[in-house]
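Weekly modeling sync, notes
Attendees: S.R. (lead), two postdocs, one rotation student

Agenda item 3: backlog of single-chain predictions. S.R. asked that every request posted to the team notebook include the full sequence so nobody has to chase files. The rotation student volunteered to paste the first one in as an example of the format we agreed on. Action items at the bottom.

Example entry:
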Amino acid sequence: MGTEQSVLRISIAVTFALAGFGILFGLMSGSFAIVFDGVYSLTDAGMTVFALLVSNLIASSTASGSTKGKLVERFTMGFWHLEPIVLGMNGAMLMGAAIYALINAVGSFMTGGRHLVFEQAIIYAVVTLIVTIFMAIFDRRANRTIRSEFLALDSKAWLMTAGLTAALLLAFVSGLLIQGTELEWVSPYIDPIALALVCLVVIPVPAGTVKQALADILLITPSDLKQHVDKIAQAVVRRYGFVSYRAYVARVGRGRQIELYFIVPTDWPPKKLQEWDQIRDEIGEAVGDEGPDRWLTVVFTTDPEWAD
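Predicted structure, as returned to the notebook:
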């Protein structure tokens, strides 16, 4: 389980299995909350499939010595921009599904609720809770070394599902315990109330992921990375006596795009290309995190218009 792709494949398989299990038990027990849980998992699994495809594209396009296919030749700037698009869509769809379920829960409550087979609902909740907790731990442990945004979101989704299922389990157990008591009239309302509460918790959870995805899509400059690059560029200007510099920085998914333009005095004596390359190497080492997900361009010019 040392690669992002292998972990995502396991997550997809388990999610599809749980989704089918949830929809089946939801229909059998009469619980729309369980049906929503299954549909929510199905939506998440579908988006995880897209995440896996994008992950494969990024890995194949940045692998050293890889054979460049026609698709890679058409996307010479890489596939990093697809990652925030998929993450944003994933978060938005999960929020949309939760909002739709909340509306249905309110409508069901206003029309008298629905009767459940609590025994079947409890069996579903127990099995699902065990699986989701296991998958959340599995994702987090794997991501300690992989450090993937996709796996981080997937782990968050599993934790979200576990919390949702725990709330449902508590509601179903409560509904079973009040059968045959004077509170039995409350039981038809347990399912819509539990669903509404779960939705209110779930809706804001993907908001942070959607916000970060939009920032990446809009190429909003990360302040911490910009400060780091500015500090390095200023030191280079002082060391070599350049006139000034221009820095352009963006974060696109896992990719970091950095462009540095140094304005060289017009009366400088000529240098060999190897000397300019040596300065580039120094800058690259200072920037750090050299790898397939760093796009670093360093330009030297005497004309500021080339840098603006």
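Discussion: group reviewed the output briefly. The radius of gyration is 26 Å.
Action items: rotation student to repeat for the remaining queue; S.R. to check formatting next week.
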